[in-house]
Each structure stands twice: as structure tokens, then as C-alpha cells.
Amino acid sequence: MNKLKKLLLATGLIASMSTFALTNQSDAATSNYKVQKGETYWKIANKFGVSVNSLMEANHAKNSNLNVGQSIIIPNSAVSSADKDLMARLVHAEAVGEPYAGKVAVATVVLNRVKDSNFPSTIKGVIYQIESGHYAFTPVQNGRINQQADAESKRAVNEAIAFNSQSQGSLYFYNPKTAKSSWIFSRKTTVTIGNHRFAK
Predict the structure, then answer these.
(1) I need a surface site. Which of 8, 44, 89, 137 has the fewest CB within 10 A?
(2) Longest dimension (CA), the chain
(3) What is the mean pLDDT of residues 148-165?
């Protein structure tokens, strides 16, 4: 009888420890946030670097209405902090002096390439890709990728992540005044922002 009690006690202890571990795992994967005046799902997604869709799904939102003081769940971003930093450094190096929208578009090109089967499937892989002896991005070749990103480039990366599901599918960007490749001019233009032409 004592053995049975010990077995039941041990089983109960293991079950409660497993529940505690799963609860902590779930808590680590998300955080709570209180909605402030004037905030929207878009603004909150942009602030935390998560997609609008994942934010709305985490909160089972059927519409875009939010109330001041409402507690919502912020899911973990699908993009790691290290990848966000790498993207921000690329954006800073490629689009310094360009309009903010152009910086968002440069970050979006990286995210679009990750989703496209013709490119590496990771952010790091896309940024450091070398194809036929050519670097995908000049700042990787010349070392400017190692410079610290400014706040605007970091914000542009978060916005690209939040907006990514609604992008125009751009996979390339170039400056038409300095580009030498006839191939890049053959690509379909999606948008021109500042000195950069974006294409797919």
C-alpha cells in the first residue's frame, strides 16, 4: 500500500512539474501588452517587430478594433533579434540617405527572398549569398555590413516584418543611374523609391 501511495505521489509530482514546465514555456513564447491611446494592431506590430497577421491571430481578433487598456498577447517574432540586427545593418548600408519607405522596401526584399525557393531560406543566407562569384549585396563585399545600424533602419526592419504579408513581391533593387547589368533592367519594376528601383 505504501508503494502504491509513493507511486501515485511521484506520478502526481511529475505531472505537475510537466504542467509547470509547459506553462513557463508558453509564457516565454509570448508577452502581454496594454493597449495605449491611438494604437492599432499595425502600430503595435511595428513596435514589437511581429507581423500584423500573427498579432491578430494570437489574440483571436475577428476585426481590427482595440480598446485603450485592453491586454493583448504579443507573440514572439518569427525573426530573431540577431537577424533583425543583420537586416538593419544591411538597410543602413544600402539605403543611407534614402527615404524611409525605401529602407522598408530594402528590408522587404530580404524577407521576400527568404520566402522564394530561388534564394536561401534564412535571412543570414540571403544577405551573405554569393552566386557565381558575385555577392548579392555590395555592403557584404565591401564590409559596410559591419557598421552599426541607425534607429531609422531598425524601425524600417520592424515595419517590413509587420507589413511583409502585403508586399509587392520585390526580389531585387538597384540604382538605375549606376547599375551596369542589362539583366537587372529586364526585371519587372514594382516601385521606384528615391534612387532605388525595386523589381521582381
Answers:
(1) 8
(2) 87
(3) 91
CA 183 to CA 9: how far, in whole Å? 71
Distance CA 153, CA 156 (A): 5
HSE-up of 94 (CA within 13 Å, CB side)? 32
Confidence of residue 33 (pLDDT cuts 50, 70, 90): very high
pTM for the model stands at 0.73
Where are the domains positioned within the chain? 31-78, 81-199
Give 130's strand partners: 135
Q: Which residue has the cell 555590395?
A: 138
Q: What is the CA radius of gyration of the chain?
A: 22
CATH of 31-78, one of 3.40.190.10, 3.10.350.10, 3.30.160.20, 3.40.50.720: 3.10.350.10
Look at 72-76, 112-116, 156-160 and tell me which has the smallest mean pLDDT: 72-76
Q: List, as one string, the DSSP characters of 39-99.
A: --HHHHHHHHT--HHHHHHHTT-SSS---TT-EEEEEPPSS-HHHHHHHHHHHHHHHTTS-
* CATH architecture for the domain at 81-199: Orthogonal Bundle (1.10)
Angle CA 184–188–193, to nearest 5 = 85
Q: Grid coordinates representing 33?
A: 501588452
